[in-house]
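INFO batch 0412 | record 1 of 1 | parsing
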Amino acid sequence: MKQLRNPKTGCQWDLQQTFESLSQYVIEEAYEVCDAVHEGNINNIQEELGDLLLQVVFFSQIAEERNYFTFLDVVETISEKMIKRHPHIFSDNKEFRTAQEQKESWEKIKQVEQERKNFGKRKSLLSNITKNLPPLVKSKKIQDKVSKVGFDWNNLGEVTQKVLEELQELRKAIDIEGMKRSEEELGDLLFTVVNLARHIDVDPEVALHKANKKFEKRFEKLELELLSQNKILSKTSKLDMDAAWAKIKQAEKDI
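INFO prediction complete | emitting tokens
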């Protein structure tokens, strides 16, 4: 990376990059790691982790050029954080903790660290949530935070009832109140569905990812089915598409 960023002999594209321009690639590479994991392809996981690591090195090289920090500083900082947040492993007072106990301890230590950083400043409970998280992830983090202070539904039945209420409000908005109101009500419905996912211990990102994959596979089968009937997708009637779709779903159930 130092060679690529050399002002005299380096690559012009690499030299033009900044923290801001690289941010999008960090997100893309992280998602590609997730895709490789979901596909279960170990070789792809290795390759995508390398691509993600490249972004860390790239950021660190730019930072070093500006005398902010180095790659070694990044490694040392995260190492220190891991030690501080695992006192049951890295202290003299070693003890066994379940995964849930460690998760709770992690959050408590993290909260103390944030309170020290924000000492003397008024901060909302939600102010430390990363602003640019994907909306589904951010929604879950918001709800996890407020749940810890008791702002949550008492049981699953209350959540499912709220989902139905939000669906009714969306239908009303679509029928009567127009596009702007419909967008707001759809957002409320999605937010409540994320809450439902929390209460049944399902990651909404993973659930939606699997739903996307399932639809993609079924649609590919739909294309093959229509092809076997010598039909062109763009010229096939909705009725014929629905019939082929139903056939594919039934075949999956019969397996």
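INFO post-check: The first helix runs from residue 12 to 16.
INFO record closed
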